[in-house]
Predict the 3D structure of the following.
Amino acid sequence: MTAPRVGIIGIGQSPFTRRRDDASYPDLVREAVIGAMRQADLDFDAIDGTVYSLSPDAMVGIGNAETLGVDAVGGRNKPFLRINTGGATGISSVAAAYYHVASGACDVVLTAGADKVGECGDSQTVLNKIWDPTYERQLPHGTITMLAMSGIRYQHKYGMTEEDMARVVVKNRKHAALNPNAHLRTEVTVDDVMASRMISWPIKLMDCCPQSSGGGAMVLASEKFIKQNKLDVVWITGVGHCTETYYQGDRMGTGQTADHADAYALGKACWRSYKMAGITDPQKQIDVAELYAPFSNTEFHSIEAAGLANVGQSVPMVNEGRFSIGGEIPVNPSGGTLCTNAIAVTAMIRVAEVALQVWGKAGGHQVKGAKRGIATGNGGDHQFFGTVVVEA
Amino acid sequence: MGLNRKTAVIGTAIAAPPPDDPRSLEELLYDVTQAALIDAGMSIEAIDGIVVGSNDQFDGRAISVMMASGSVGGVDRDILSTPSAGEHAFVMATLRIASGLYETHLVVSWSPTEASSMAETQRLGADPYFHRKLPLDELAGAALQANSIASATPGVHDLATRIAELNLNNGSHAYPAAAAQTAEAGALPWPLRDGMVSAPATGAVALVIASENYVAAKGLTNIAWVNGMGWATESGYLGDRDLNQAEALEAARDRAYADAGITNPLETLDVVELTDASPYQQLLVSEVLGLSARADWESDVATGIFTKHSALAVNPSGGVASFNPVFCTGLIRIAEAANQVRGTAGAHQVKGAKNALAHAASGFAMMYQSVLILGDQPKGAAA
């Protein structure tokens, strides 16, 4: 059985920033929803159901905080459920919305959410609580230290330097400067990055994503609905997920199930969506990529997992500009997660940005001639991975 | 809209561990997963995808699905999580199979009781400005709803007491250890009384579901077809709702009945498993589902429509009133209904059950509502 085609007909996102004192949490959701509904040119009666995108409740400080968003998405008395796969939540929510349509349950589905990470106090304190309370929580562990260990391992295996990491920051900040919705839009130099304070070796402050506040929303629809209403659309042609181990220790040492330097499960998720989309050579068939990389070092193994470079070979390609706007396969032309991270919707924005690119509606950071792209999302302790292929 | 293809429940397992069970939560989830796979006659290798439902506050972990992914066989697999409700995991998995991209799914939900205060964890679910100071936990929400129903229905307190007795009698067969603790629920908000509600218990549930193509290819017969599925939500603010009504349940009912082609539920259904966090909610749900009109509540209770021996057996498991692992009670209702259709319900099996309804409700005063219609034959949309 072949899944029916599902299209993206509306996208909304906030101008992300550290704080939004002018808007409550539901206000931010509503802001994004209104943007998506305006682009889709629909009223709320046309929405058959909602997939709500929200990662840890503790980031918002309210248990099951999706309940506060029901009215913001116009969800009352309609199908509604929430997805949470940590940082991958946004792309998992797009996938869940896709299944709502592909199953025949709905013709038009809204997926939406928001986060106020910049107002949560310290996201790393919250994120420490993702680990097992007996074994790994007390290290103390955070997502920065977790991916610093991956960076050290990647340095060891493939020869990446801290200057190489800094060049990823320079690239993405340059891209973000062209994107009015990005949070960190100031261009920086390699020297700036190298001079920023060390957070967890080899990751320095400017190698880290910001704590962002803002919302994201997308409207997906069936091919039948799109054709009946003659809507402007780009298509989701591939969807994939895969999972790694929970315990960090299972990715290290002689008994490892996967190497922490690489993104093994992300690679499997990418190839699942490529297979569905009929892609066999992503280096030739992908025009643009939005890869979830919250720290500069993780962009390298994400590029490789997505098959845009061979394993261990992405560093010189980044340095040569292959993945910059104007290069062969621009990666994170929006500035990516490194410049904007409102966790609940970050991975949704990756899909939204790829959709805008292949639609030709990305504005100042448009990649010329982009017709097919891939978006990825990472969640948990580098554990849950979601991927979506979007085509014009 | 009906789904593009049929799905069936092919395996279930419900874990009701005693309070002194020495297993960790990870061990409990591994065991319940393996039991469901064994019931389905398959190994984890045959599972295409997994959807789990869990609650961060109850588990004491941010992103609680992380811990479970190993126990439920998620490593190297495709796994999603629906923290809004345990039953939403079933909805999501069914949609994934109906999309044509998956043939099988594992659905797991759980609810531990290790939090020092379940009421305090539930209070975190109230918005911090208007409701959190009330204080409002799920029992308080059920009590507010009971008062709303009672204010519109004189005499309902006596009916609620009698229904609670019926549920406990049923539960004494299905979950004797858990049902015995119902009387120890502790101080209750008015008008709830001893015996009406069950203290939170640790529990877990797993189901294996498969596409019609997989069922045909494997020649499976001991299955329960998902013939109808509806789900909807109320507003998040109690103040915006009339708790004497259940509009989201009406929407979920309409969708599920339309899918299954049900016009007269009393005639079609043999078994109903309702989420009855209180007997007042059971009455309201019975009304909305077309099982017992409000004007007939007293006579229906008197003539036994709510017993497991009536023409329509209601809560033969004893319902939530007998066994209450809070976050996964809704998914347990689905597993119980599937077991009845498959003839695998054990001591509380209803003889000859062919068509069952599972009603799942979660959140304050049944905010999230889901209705599943299960049958021994494929019926309705995509049948």
Observations:
- The longest strand of chain A covers residues 213-222.
- Chain A touches chain B through 72 residues (CB under 8 Å).
- The mean pLDDT of chain A is 96.
